[in-house]
């Protein structure tokens, strides 16, 4: 009986559990110039500052996920108890970090926000910190998911868009576009970062549908009327909806409740 119990216990301990939050141990450093991050690989440009409140982060390839990780939110705290706050801070992924010595390179504003009150100078001096991080839902309060038409778009043959203010804890895996009221969908491809494009551009006002990771698999989201017929480059359009789903991760132990 005791043997059986131990066997079950080790089975549970060795298998990954589905979690809302997995806790990861790593390191973080910071960019001395915020501009280094706002020109990031996700393609947000200066909008990176808007979507992150200045708390931008470049993540390594396993977090960047070829662009699917763009816009993901992370809670980060550092581990030096003489300078670090217990709660840490929230950052938004806006760039790819090519330096694999740290999982994250943060904006200096985000990096100093890891400090206890009055300790931000000390923390900046340390330059590189041992951290814990976990994915958390993005919460944009009264802001809907938005779609920005990129400057590279060329009516009527080419449409490039990016998603801004993506709520929840999800990744966009596929995007289709069609004329409002039509079921003739054209698929879009991820061009880079948060930017999707197509050269099969429907006429008229445009609707979008896209697949997000949610729970254990994917879910279709339908934004029924997003771009007007006279859509213009450089303009941000309200999708009329927001995402609040959470995709499950596999890990052990889970950290769903211990740390906000
Ligand atoms: C923790 O912070 C203190 C104060 O800045 C510093 O002297 C010490 O070297 C740090 N410890 C580690 C492990 O970085
Ligand atoms: C970091 O990247 C370098 C060069 O690509 C590689 O040689 C090294 O093994 C990597 N280190 C880790 C810890 O992944
Ligand atoms: C579907 O939409 C594409 C792109 O706008 C267009 O080229 C094609 O002719 C449409 N097909 C039909 C059956 O309407």
TrEMBL record:
Domain Expansin-like CBD: 157-239
Top-level taxon of origin: Eukaryota
Primary subcellular site in the record, as a coarse category: secreted
Record's signal peptide: 1-18
Keywords: Secreted, Signal
A GO CC term assigned to this protein in UniProt: extracellular region
Database matches in InterPro entries: Expan_Lol_pI, Expansin/allergen_DPBB_dom, Expansin_CBD, Expansin_CBD_sf, LolPI, RlpA-like_DPBB, RlpA-like_sf
GO biological process: anatomical structure morphogenesis
Localization (cell): Secreted
Pfam families: DPBB_1, Expansin_C
Expansin-like EG45 domain: residues covered: 39-143
Similarity annotation: Belongs to the expansin family.
Official protein name in the record: Expansin-like A2
């Amino acid at each position: 009986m005791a043997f059986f119990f131990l066997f079950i216990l080790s089975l549970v301990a060795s298998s990954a559990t589905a979690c809302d939050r997995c806790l990861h141990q790593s390191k973080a450093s910071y960019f001395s110039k915020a501009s280094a991050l706002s020109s990031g690989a996700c393609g947000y440009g200066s909008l990176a500052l808007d979507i992150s409140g200045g708390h931008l982060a470049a993540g390594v390839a396993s977090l960047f996920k070829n662009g699917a990780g763009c816009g993901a939110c992370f809670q980060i705290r550092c581990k030096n108890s003489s300078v670090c706050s217990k709660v840490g801070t929230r950052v938004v992924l806006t760039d790819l970090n090519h330096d694999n010595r740290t999982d994250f390179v943060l904006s200096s504003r985000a990096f100093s926000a890891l400090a206890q009150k009055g300790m931000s100078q000390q923390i900046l001096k340390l330059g590189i910190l041992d951290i814990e991080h976990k994915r958390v839902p993005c919460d944009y309060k009264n802001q809907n998911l938005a779609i920005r038409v990129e400057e590279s778009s060329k009516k009527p043959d080419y449409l490039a868009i990016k998603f801004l203010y993506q709520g929840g804890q999800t990744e966009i895996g596929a995007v289709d576009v069609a004329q409002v009221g039509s079921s003739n969908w054209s698929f879009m491809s991820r061009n880079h970062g948060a930017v999707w494009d197509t050269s099969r551009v429907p006429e008229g006002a445009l609707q979008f549908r896209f697949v997000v990771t949610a729970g254990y698999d994917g879910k279709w989201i339908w934004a029924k009327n997003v771009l007007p017929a006279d859509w213009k480059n450089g303009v941000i359009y309200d999708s009329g909806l927001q995402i609040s789903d959470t995709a499950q991760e596999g890990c052990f132990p889970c950290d769903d409740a211990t740390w906000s």
